[in-house]
Predict the structure.
Amino acid sequence: MINVVGIRFKKAGKIYYFDPEQKMINKYDYVIVETARGIEFGQVVVGPKLVKDEEIIQPLKKVLRLATEDDIEKNRKNKEDEQKAFALCLEQINEHGLEMKLVDVEYTFDNNKVIFYFTADGRVDFRDLVKDLASVFRTRIELRQIGVRDEAKMLGGLGPCGRPLCCSTFLGDFAPVSIKMAKEQNLSLNPTKISGICSRLMCCLNYEKDMYAENLDRLPNIGEKVVTPNGVGEVIHVNPLICKLKVRVKKKNEDIDEIEEFDESEIKKHR
């Protein structure tokens, strides 16, 4: 077993695990760690815990130290500099007439690199833009094209439900979402009804996927014959959320059909 702590570098960002060694580190502490990008400032969101060796990708990097007041102040100043860099980059984009939308700017903690995140419909030749930005900031410049889901995660906003976006508040990673999930949940397949502000399928379609799939596997399919308290009938509608079925039952001694709703416990499959 290995002792680890989970650290985030951005709000609702992916959680990365590090070795706290013998340091007294608690949840919500600010820490300084070394990553592939260099020295970074992050916050502990998962307190010290033991995990199995096979669950960890080796080598596990170590927490360098708890953040000092100077580190916290430097991180705050970096956030201010990011806002200034954002405005300056917008001016440069307009001057070069580039078809791109600037979304966010990020300074690495050690100021060795400035990363500009943008969206665009296609490929963008930003070589001249990089040269101009490098001459202003006197450091390494990286322009990174992102997708519309990442844009929504960075900018935040309100979803169709009226609540803050899941991706910008607590979702660390984007899980795959498919139209099949909407079909299983009997939702309207109108794109405007099942899409988020990013114009992609809503992430929340994935939340109840397993429950719907489990219930649908257990319940009879549409068109199947079932035995009800009122006789044998044909399933015409299934509600997997509340496990109810609508069944077309032929009334005894009458040449008419009647549609009735039954709980799962009231029906049996017809042999």
